[in-house]
Amino acid sequence: MRRPYWLALVLFMVPATVLAIVIRPDVSDSRYLVSDSSFPALVDLPGEGQGVLIAPRWVVTAAHATQGYMLMRVRLHGQWRDVAHLFLYPGFKKQFSDVRKAAEHPTMQNASLLMARFEAMHDIALIELAEPVEDVKPVPLYRDSDEQGKVAEIFGKGATGNGKVGEYPHSPHRGKLRRAYNRIVSAHAQWLDYVFDCGRNALPLEGVSGDGDSGGPLLIRSHGEWKLAGLSDWKHWPEGRSEFAAGVCGQRFSNSRISHYAKWISQTMASHVKNPGI
């Protein structure tokens, strides 16, 4: 059955479909698989969806991945950690509601309106933990605004597949950890975009986010260390296709841009703890 146009943009509206790693069709999956110790600061939200530890008591994630349930705890480094507070970016709930309303009538006529509301949304949240994390090193933030053209490192545990066929049907949304790379093609306002390149200019381990890992990390290497530059968020309708497909070659992906939100992150943390650690 054909999936409507709007579904490409509102996949994250359903708890079972948030943004893991879809790989190149000509590279073995074994080259993408890594141990959990490769990125110990990765935080699992209940069910699916992820976040990143950025200070001893603070996790950053996609706001939409925290909706529809009571967020009481998260899992980090093999342990459940209790949540003290959830801080959504100001205005997110109204913007989220506007997107949902635009999606109630899935027609080609309102597709541009829906896209505009997605572009306007600020999809980021901070989770304050009840106790500081002492067994995992937090990830520093990438604060510079020169992300375009840089190679990014992506981690994910959710649905997989390859660029030729897209995500495999019934691929689990919480499974083995994979790592891939992509090149940021656009840095604009609150978004960082990359495209799944399967051609001769593709990176050796080119890959993209898949269903199951919204809020997962997009990292940029700076001064010898990987820093958090973005959070996996939403994918665009693949150009030239009459039906929606997730994780296919040529598809564009949008990620919440950390440099755009660095000030809000620091101010929120500082206003709630004496030593935010960032």
General description of the model:
With 278 residues, this protein is an alpha+beta fold. It has helices at residues 92-102, 111-120, 258-270, and strands spanning 22-23, 42-44, 50-55, 58-61, 73-76, 79-88, 125-129, 151-156, 161-162, 166-167, 178-188, 191-195, 207-208, 217-222, 225-235, 252-257. It has one domain (14-89, 124-270): Thrombin, subunit H (Beta Barrel). 12% of the residues lie in helices and 31% in strands. A 6-stranded antiparallel β-barrel has the order 2-3-4-7-6-5.
Quick description:
The strands form four sheets. This protein has a six-stranded antiparallel beta barrel. Strands 8-11-12-16-15-14 form a six-stranded antiparallel β-barrel.
Features of this protein?
278 residues, alpha+beta, Thrombin, subunit H, six-stranded antiparallel beta barrel, six-stranded antiparallel β-barrel, 12% helix, globular, disordered N terminus
